[in-house]
User: Fold T-complex protein 1 subunit epsilon from Populus euphratica.
Amino acid sequence: MALAFDEFGRPFVIIKEQDQKVRLRGLDAQKANIASGMAVSRILRTSLGPKGMDKMLQSPDGDVTITNDGATILEQMDVDNQIAKLLVELSRSQDYEIGDGTTGVVVLAGALLEQAQKLLERGVHPIRVAEGYETASRIAVEHLEKIAQKFDFGVNNIEPLVQTCMTTLSSKIVNRCKRSLAEISVKAVLAVADLERKDVNLDLIKVEGKVGGKLEDTELIYGIVVDKEMSHPQMPKQIEDAKIAILTCPFEPPKPKTKHKVDVDTVEKFQTLRKQEHQYFDNMVQKCKGVGATLVICQWGFDDEANHLLMNRNLPAVRWVGGVELELIAIATGGRIVPRFEELTPEKLGKAGLVQEKAFGTTKDRMLYVEHCANSRAVTIFIRGGNKMMIEETKRSIHDALCVARNLIRNNSIVYGGGSSEISCSISVEAAADRYPGVEQYAIRAFADALDSVPMSLAENSGLQPIETLSAVKSQQIKENNPYCGIDCNDAGTNDMREQNVFETLIGKQQQILLATQVVKMILKIDDVISPSDF
Ligand code: ADP
Assistant:
């Protein structure tokens, strides 16, 4: 602070900007950052694995979400701390790239931070820790490739894919129906997959939900389901061999672009105007019928008069269909989206074997099913469930399962789950540590210890003694030279994960290790934190 005087001799105080900021330097900065990162990871730790707990999050407007998906929990938490936000980003990038393993990656990052803290307290320089972690992560990723296995699947042999999706679903709330949901997910992915190019466009899978019914009623529809109904209750509810006009132009007379005033001062003038308007509608309907359309799907609405006319002329119509849905319908039926009535031609019509409106239970809700399409490369997973929260969580779980199936189509290598691959990596990293003469050795060992935290959390969450269980499994892996021993979370009687059919994709697991190491290195390299103080 400094005292100064202006040109009239009045005193004023100059406060330096820096004085208003809180500044942490050196080891203090690292310790504070590590503590914030660990706090976030501690929250997710209890949600890991098949017996993991769920979290209930309430948004400011009162919406409640119940989930155990790491990315969703962090997304919905109102995180203020910048380091904590890095972990939220971490889980999000795992979600973008892989789609599964979002809890595991944060738990691993938390454990790496915890180990780093111990080393810093013992006087190891943060850069040495970061370098050691980098080396160790390379060893672990290479080791994963060694213990990975390839498995074959084909369009006629989808069982292996189903099994992997079931592992993903087994840790979710929906695990009661994991078999059927896994089958639905795999069939959906295979329906839209390009097996030659080994790629899957998940945008072609529409996931729709409606409250009501049971989770078991969830179904896969080779076509599109839209939450809309026919525009008039007297229009037919079922159209076979439908020729669909997909329109983004409104069913209404054109509006003048500039302002006009129309004087209607006589009955005749009014009637001419009405007639003209009627004529417009009539021409539009005629145009659609002329090219052979038996159903019109419209992005925009139309008024009662047009609606009535459509009904009278026997041309069923659906209005207010969203842009994304319109696009999917166009892809599925092989039609074109038409922006002007003049451009409508018979070739641009979409074709579907059956379009029907279905009602549910005793409610007035109706949905439109567009099935047996010309090109069934767009499919819909239609979820039923007791309440909105259940449906939302099922959507998230199905997203994970779809991602896992897609990853396997891209690369069919797998590693076994239940913490077995982490334990195996930990053993190999530990063994490699001896080969490094410098201080790095400690960091590499610390990395091995951090890897153990995943199986340890799995054991803890399943009500087992974490340290005893881990040491028993670890010694069994070494004794039997079997990298597939993991934590028997479900008390299935064996801890060989091959027998339990618990596996994850190799790229998912590698990504977890790489991303977690990257973020932890980044946090360790920050030695100066300047932030505005909050007074
Ligand atoms: P994420 O969001 O990271 O996928 P999950 O809560 O789905 O987290 O838990 C995944 C972890 O649970 C993985 O390490 C996986 O190997 C393990 N896991 C899943 N099913 C089983 C099982 N039946 N037995 C043991 N471990 C399992």
Remarks:
- The first helix runs from residue 26 to 45.
- Residues 25-150+416-532 form a domain with the GROEL; domain 1 fold (CATH 1.10.560.10).
